[in-house]
Write a structure and sequence with these properties.
297 residues; mainly alpha; Tetracycline Repressor, domain 2; 2 domains; 16 helices; 80% helix
Length: 297
């Protein structure tokens, strides 16, 4: 009886966990980068605060839907079996109502404090992740993360449009960087958790095509990522400081991918995955620092 009561007594931490706060924080870093890169003047406090809050709420809403749809899969995997829905601490209906509430809070904030284009792009990103990727692609194809990764790559575009009010080449290039980063990031984790994905019947690339094939594609995407990450310098969006950082970070990523491909280290897959998180954070920080350094020169 005590176990049943504790399972039903969801606390605020359970609902916070449903929003995947660590993922949302990384998304907000790229959104902030998009905002500050969009202008040579300062970003207004209302856009900075409420724009990012609206994006965060909508991203959290999509994450909650992901938890609901994947609750049976999560219960089978060591990485996710302690999630609130997988353990029954939160029921699906309250979780979905929570997701709806987050979206209904986030969208008006974007409409009022940014612009309609930002709001609709954010909604498209939410639906792309929660419906297209989670509800269909994840279980339909080993290229799930490649196709579905576009939704997760949207935050810098959202930040840029929140400030500028229009779409241009520069924010699309930022989207392209995250789009190229997503496959090696997730496939490295998929190799590390291959047996769990197989048990959950999720057609991740290592499960359907084997580790060697996946490692080759991680290496190829790492090369693509390195090339794409240099484009901001090529189009004069950034300067030498960013170029140096992008080269150093990208070559280190490539080194991890090569070590993983060669199989020379036993824990290279999880090492590559962990490095990829720091890589994206550092790359966007470098973009911001370089941008404001150029303004002071």
């Amino acid at each position: 009886m005590a176990t049943l009561l504790s399972a039903r007594r969801a606390v605020w931490r359970d609902y916070l966990e449903l929003t995947k706060p660590k993922v949302v924080v990384l998304m907000l870093i790229t959104s902030l980068a998009g905002m500050f890169l969009a202008t040579r003047a300062g970003v207004s406090w209302s856009v900075l605060l409420f724009g990012n809050l609206g994006i965060a709420l909508c991203a959290g809403s999509a994450a909650v839907v992901n938890h609901v749809v994947d609750r049976r899969i999560d219960a089978l995997m060591a990485r996710t079996h302690k999630r609130p829905l997988a353990q029954g601490r939160v029921e699906p209906l309250p979780a979905l109502l929570f997701a709806l509430a987050l979206a209904l809070l986030g969208m008006p904030l974007l409409l009022v404090f940014t612009n309609a284009l930002t709001a609709w792009l954010t909604l498209a990103s939410l639906l792309g992740y929660a419906v297209l990727y989670t509800g269909f692609l994840k279980r339909a194809t080993p290229q799930n993360i490649v196709i579905g990764g576009l939704a997760g790559a949207a935050p810098p575009l959202l930040g840029w449009v929140a400030v500028s009010g229009h779409v241009s080449a520069e924010p699309l290039l930022l989207v392209l960087i995250i789009f190229a980063w997503t496959p090696p990031h997730f496939w490295a984790l998929a190799i590390h958790r291959k047996e769990e994905y197989a048990k959950a019947d999720i057609p991740m690339l290592p499960v359907t095509h084997g580790e060697r094939y996946t490692k080759l594609h991680i290496l190829l995407y790492s090369l693509i990522l390195l090339a794409v990450s240099l484009l901001p310098f090529a189009i004069h969006m950034s300067g030498l400081l960013y170029l140096a950082c992008a080269l150093a970070l990208g070559l280190r990523f490539l080194q991890w991918a090569w070590v993983l491909y060669r199989g020379s280290q036993p824990h290279a897959a999880i090492g590559t995955f962990k490095y990829s998180i720091g890589y994206l954070f550092a790359l966007f920080i470098a973009l911001l620092v370089d941008h404001y350094l150029l303004l002071t020169l």
